[in-house]
């Protein structure tokens, strides 16, 4: 902490220049076990998401709106995981786990930006699945490249603005005393609780903005799946219904995991007993979901498997 002159008088106060991240555990034995585990998870996250982006870009058969959105979702997952995981990995090797005020604000801003963008992008992907199932004959006309690009740009742009709205008021609060964050990343709810000034306005901004983003995007998803369910029920053959449902099963799984874990993290009652549970949920939300998303979309996706086979054949110069 460094001295700071109060605007209200001549007394010197101290303002926080560093935060201390307690991490997942303070036991060296546990940290030595967790380091290779989370390093492996992070490498898988980077390799799988980056590989999916490259595959979609290189294979013309995957140049469709659904895979365009998926490639940008993979980019979000890379950035989201990278906002917290490298810091956590380096902290496993340190005795003193400190992060500067500016670095903490930057970490939260990037993570919040990506989380906001993912909410909007998942909503855009739900609408894409509705058009593909509910209005297949008009799909190419409705989901034109221009509209898809606008949806992606809108997701990233809205996420950027939403993150600014959250980050700036919270990090303009006055911090003068406790600087310990009881987790492995700069979580805004913990940071606000450390403020020495009245956090009411910042808390209200954070609450209202989160409700607006989460509710609006989730409402689009619910409406889209309502129309999807209605369209599937109109299909007479069981095989046709199963095929239609299969086209949106991966997206539905990703949405369920993303929103289910997010709600568990931020609506879970805070108490000393639940602190370890909150850490586990945060690990799942921040670190594991970016790894799971490409796996969910890839493992049962025939088009991606076929594209991968074509890419391998081209790389090894085998005949098609």
Descriptive overview:
This protein has eleven helices and five strands, in the order E-E-E-H-H-H-E-H-H-H-E-H-H-H-H-H. By secondary structure, it is mostly helical. It has a single domain (2-6, 13-315), classed as Rhopdopsin 7-helix transmembrane proteins, CATH 1.20.1070. Strands 4-3-5 form a three-stranded mixed sheet. Helix 4 runs parallel beside helix 8. The longest helix is centred in the middle third of the chain and has 34 residues, at 101-134.
Overview features:
320 residues, mainly alpha, Rhopdopsin 7-helix transmembrane proteins, three-stranded mixed β-sheet, two-stranded antiparallel ribbon, 11 helices, 5% strand
Number of helices: 11
Average pLDDT, to the nearest integer?
Answer: 87
* Major sheet details: 3 strands, mixed
Strand order of the largest sheet: 4-3-5
Number of separate structural domains: 1
Counting helices, strands and paired strands, the structural category is mainly alpha
What is the 3D form? globular
| Poorly predicted parts | 1-13
The number of strands is 5
- Cα separation of the termini: 65 Å
**CATH-defined fold name:** Rhopdopsin 7-helix transmembrane proteins
Subcellular location: Cell membrane; Membrane
Family: Belongs to the G-protein coupled receptor 1 family.
Organism: Ceratotherium simum simum (Southern white rhinoceros)
Membrane topology: Multi-pass membrane protein
